[in-house]
Amino acid sequence: MKIRIGVGLGTHTLANTQETFLPYVRDVERLGFDSLWLSERLTGDAPDPLVALAVAAGATTKLKLGTGVLVLPGRNPVVLAKEMASLDRLSGGRFLPAVGLGAPTPVEHRAFGIERGERAGWFDEALPLIRRLWAEDDVHHDGDRFRVDGVTIRPKPVQDPIEVWLGGQSRSELRRCGRLGDGWLPSFATVADVRDGWEVVTAEAAAHDREIDPEHLGVLVAYARGAVPDRVVSLLAARRPDLDPADVIPVGMASLRERLEAFTEVGASKFVVLPLDEPSDWTAELEEVAATVLPLES
Prior knowledge:
Layout: E1 4-9, H1 18-30, E2 35-38, H2 49-59, E3 64-71, H3 77-90, E4 95-100, H4 106-112, H5 119-135, E5 139-142, E6 147-151, E7 165-166, H6 171-180, E8 183-184, H7 191-207, E9 218-223, H8 230-239, H9 253-264, E10 270-275, H10 282-293
Parallel strand pairs: 1-2, 1-10, 2-3, 3-4, 4-7, 7-8, 9-10
Antiparallel strand pairs: 5-6
Helix pairs in contact: 1-10, 2-3, 3-5, 6-7, 9-10
């Protein structure tokens, strides 16, 4: 099992200027992290992930570039296929897309222009179409939401195929990952969530004559330096009122390492770690995180 560890910027990050973002990206590559993952929130401080990853691609040579996660419902799948293929090509095949339905908040749904009940159907039609646009020429599609007549996307991506990971933990999201995904990247998950969820994902894949690489089980692990921020406590209480925040949010570097080790015991091998609060010194933060968790890579 190849353990790989990347880092992320959450939706509240203030590293959204040239003076803050570029030094951060260069530190991530310099310290030997496998990948950089950018979250999406239209109403948050984080930069647009595709735009920011394009900037990161130009500032690095080896660092893999992930979206954790990019919202699919509300985007034109042909335009998105072109954008993703361009990013993969210009980065030399370093693009790692993880996609999802979007944050479960009404303001985000309104911002994307898709009603809550429409998101799943939009996603289920858009992702297979995007895959076809990456792989085929002269694509024709006449679906419930999209009509494509003789479209060929060029340039094609370097990766053949681009592997698309999915997030989410609900039963429907797990089954969708099994049907459509190449990997699973949940967040705010307990060890038991990851163990049990992966069983659902792989069983659903098998039911559709698919097989997902066992190395494609990942976890996005947010950590705290001190007390868990009130905004996160409130979010968890609304989503999972029976859950102790400590079950999903390690506090301190030692706890972060222990949590990653626990996830590896249930089969996870790809990790994205990110702080819940913006550090005052990103270089020092990344150096300590690297010293703590990168020795786990194998």
